[in-house]
Specification:
The protein is mainly alpha-helical. It has one domain: BFD-like [2Fe-2S]-binding domain (Arc Repressor Mutant, subunit A, Orthogonal Bundle), CATH 1.10.10. The chain contains three helices and two strands; from the N terminus they run E-E-H-H-H. Strands 1-2 form a two-stranded antiparallel sheet. A hairpin with a 4-residue loop joins strand 1 and strand 2. Helix 1 packs across helix 2 and helix 1 packs across helix 3. The longest helix is centred in the last third of the chain and has 16 residues.
Length: 62
């Protein structure tokens, strides 16, 4: 996965920023939104952000 790829254009949040938020303890979409701002403007990326959160939480917890 390209961690430099922007997942939220409105807030310029990358895959890596989502991973960093999860690694720092965020476990839900809402916690990642609070940490990064991803998905808090137009909302188009919410599904993508949710999938990334689930993936990174799963990787972190295994």
């Amino acid at each position: 996965m390209n961690l430099d790829k922007i997942v939220c254009n409105c807030m310029s949040v990358t895959n890596g920023m989502i991973k960093e938020a999860v690694d720092a303890g965020a476990s839900t979409l809402e916690e990642v939104q609070d940490a990064t701002g991803a998905g808090t403007a137009c909302g188009v990326c919410l599904d993508d952000v949710q999938h990334l959160v689930e993936q990174f939480v799963s990787e972190r917890d295994n």
